[in-house]
Amino acid sequence: MDLEKSREQPSGEGCLVVALRMPVRIVVLVLVVPVRMVWDALVVVGRFLGDTVFRPLGRALAWVGRAVFVWPFVALWRWVLVPLGRALRWLGTVLVVVPAGWLYRTVLTPLGHALAWLGHRLLVVPSVWLYRWVLTPVGYALAWCGRGLFALVSLLVAGVATALDWTFRVLVWWPAYAVWRWVLAPVGRVLAVVAREVGAALGHAWRIAGYVSLAVGRALAAFFRWTVVEPARWVYRTVLTPVGHVVRDWVLRPVAEAARSVGRVTRDTLRSVRVTVRQVRQDVRRALLGESKKSDGQDDRILLTKR
């Protein structure tokens, strides 16, 4: 697509653009490919850490922050500060607002009216007379003198400004305009072309580096799969599983059966030994003490039941 766009562009770009485009794109591509691969790896690691570490940690910290900071302050605001504020507002209304309103209505308002009347008689009337018969004629005279002085100063300032303007034009403006037009503008156009091509090369190289990074990642994944995962799966499926079945069928099961048989034989032997010892003990007891037939019958029944 980039090649087609470059072909569709008009041919009036100039030799400088054509000469700079391919070297700049090659150099930028070589520099950008490792950066893009590192960037993609960091993006993958960042997403993994964000999903497995930072997001649960953030939720836990948010819950702890609410439990430690928000909920206590909410409870303090709701159950302490709000009732205290209402009580203080009521006290302020009773102790300050009501007395202040009464003082304003009954004392300060009549006093203010009296002072306003006395200020009008002592200040406003003399001030109006002074302004009308003294300050107004003096102001007219000063204004006429000021207009004349302003005209004179304006003529002087206009002459000085005209001289400074021509001096500025001859010494600063015309040389600066010549330098801008014949030196800085061509250099700026060349630098603009170079910057534009470098920017286009960076975008082109960034996109190519993305494809290269994707291809390298897929190649590494395929290499890991075919060198580690598939051989391990094949070994497990074709070697370890049959060997495990053989060991289970030909070793573990016979050993378990033999162990169970030995356990049964051992239990039967121990039971026979206990019965024999009990009979011998009963015979010795009968030989020495001579027990009754009832006990002998009970012992026989016990022996038969245990057998």
UniProtKB/TrEMBL annotation:
The chain crosses the membrane at residues 26-49, 61-81, 87-104, 116-135, 141-164, 208-228. The keyword Membrane applies. Keywords: Membrane, Transmembrane, Transmembrane helix. It comes from the Bacteria. This is Integral membrane protein. It comes from Streptomyces thermocarboxydus.
